[in-house]
Amino acid sequence: MECFALAANKGDALRHQQDYCKAFYETPWPTKYSVDLVADQQSEEDDLSLELSIIKLLEEQPPIAAAEWCIYRVPKRLFDMKSTAYTPKVIAIGPFHHGRNDLLATQQSKLHCFRNYLIRIERDVKYVVAIARQWEIKARRLYAEPINMTSDDFVRMMLIDACFIVELMIILNFECFETREGFDLLFAKVILHDLYQELTMLENQLPFFVLQALFDLFPPHKNKANISFIQLTGKFLSNGLIRGYNLPCGVSSTEEVNHLVDLLGFYYVPSPDTEEYRQNKEIKNRIFLLPPTITKLCEAGVKVKKAIGARSLLDISFKRGVLQIPPFEIHDDFEIYVRNLMAFEQYCVREPDDDRYVIHYIEFLDGLISTAEDVALLVKEGIIINHIGGSNKEVSELFNNLCKNTPIPFQFYFYATSKNLHDHCRKWWPRSKATLRRDYFHSPWAYISVFAATFLILLALLQTIFTAKSTFN
C-alpha cells in the first residue's frame, strides 16, 4: 500500500511539474512589438494629460478682445532704447505702476484732489463709488493684459487717479470754474513739468470715458465758461506740449478718444481738404520712400519755407519748387510724447495703416534731417524752434534715433511728396540755377560784379562790331 501511495505522490508531483513547465513555456515572452505597445499606451496617456492641462489653461483665460485694447505695455525693444521716456518718476496713473514705493509721495495730493472734486460736484463718496463700479468691466477690457487687482482696489485706483487728472486740469483753467482751496498749488507748480510728461506716457493712462464721465457729474452752474472736457484737455495739451500753435484738435466726439495719448495724436491728423491729402489718398500703392535731406534739396534749388496758417503739423506741401513745413518746437517733452505716441500707434488696432500718422511724420522728418547742417537750415527758416538748449547736432541725433526699432510703415502717407522731391532733384535746370545762385550770386556785390562784367563784355562786343564794320567799308 505504501508503494502505491508513494507512486501516486510521485505521479502528482510529476503532473504538477509538467503543468508548471507547460504554463512557463506557453506564456509569451516580451517582444519588441509588445514593448512598443506598452510605450505607445504610456505616450497616449501622457498626451491625454497634456491635452487636458492645455484645455484647462484655455478655459481659465478671459475672452480675447484685442479690438478693444488701447492701453499697452511698451514693447521691450522700444523700452530698452530709452526707458526713461516710458517710465513715470513722479506719479502713477492707472494700474501698471500703481503701488510703486517710489511714487507713493504723490498719493496725498491725489486724495486732496479727490476731496475737492467731491465738494465741487456736491456729492459723497458712496455716490461716486456706486457709479464707478459700473465702469469697472469696460475699463478692465481696455487694458491689453489682465489687471491683478481686486474689484475694490481697481475702483479705488480708478476714482482717485481720474479725479486727480480732472481736478488738475480745472485748477490750470481756474478762470473757467469756481476755485477751491485745499489743492497744493506749490506742489503742482513744482511737478507741473513732470506731470505734462508723465500724463502722456502710454503706461500711465486711464480710459478717457472715465475722465469724461467724472467731468459730466459737474453741476452746470460750476462750469462758468461752459467749456467741454475735450476743450479743457485740448488746452492742457496745447499749453504743455504744442505751445503757441493753436492747432485744432480734430475730435468731433469723445467716443473717438481712448486716452490722453490718443487725444494728443489727433494733432497729427492731416487736414482732409488739402491738395496733398487728396493726392496721397488717390495713390493706391504708396511705398515707403524717404525724402532727400534738406541740404540736398537746397543744392537742387528747392526753397524751404515755414508754412503759415497750417491747420495740422502734417500739412506739408511741395509746389513750384517750394517745400513748406509747419513749424514745431523741440523741447524737453518732445521726445517723450513722440516716443509714446509712436509706441501706441504700433499696437493700436486701426485700419487702414496710414492712420499711423505720427510714425509717418517722424519718418519723413528723419529723412529730411541727417546732419547738423540740415537742422541749421530749418532753424534759420523758423521751422524748428529749438528750446532744449542743445546744439544742432543733438537735434539731428534725436531724429535719427526716434525711428530705430520702428517697423517700416506701409502705405506711406508722404510718398507723393517724397517722390516729387526726388523728381525735382533729378532735373538739370533747377540744380544749375541753384549752383549759379550759390556760387555767383550769393551777395549783392556778386550781382553788381556780374552786371559790371556783362556790361563791359557788351561794350567790347559793340566796339568790335563797329571796328569791323568800318574796316570793311
TrEMBL record:
Q: Keywords on this record? A: Membrane, Transmembrane, Transmembrane helix
Species per Swiss-Prot/TrEMBL record: Momordica charantia
What's this protein's name?
Answer: UPF0481 protein At3g47200-like
Membrane-spanning regions, if any? 445-466
The gene that this protein is the product of is: LOC111005065
InterPro entries tied to this protein: DUF247_pln
Fetch the PANTHER family from UniProt: BNAC04G53230D PROTEIN, DUF247 DOMAIN PROTEIN
> By its UniProt entry, which Pfam families does this protein fall under?
DUF247
The question of whether Transmembrane is a record keyword is answered with yes
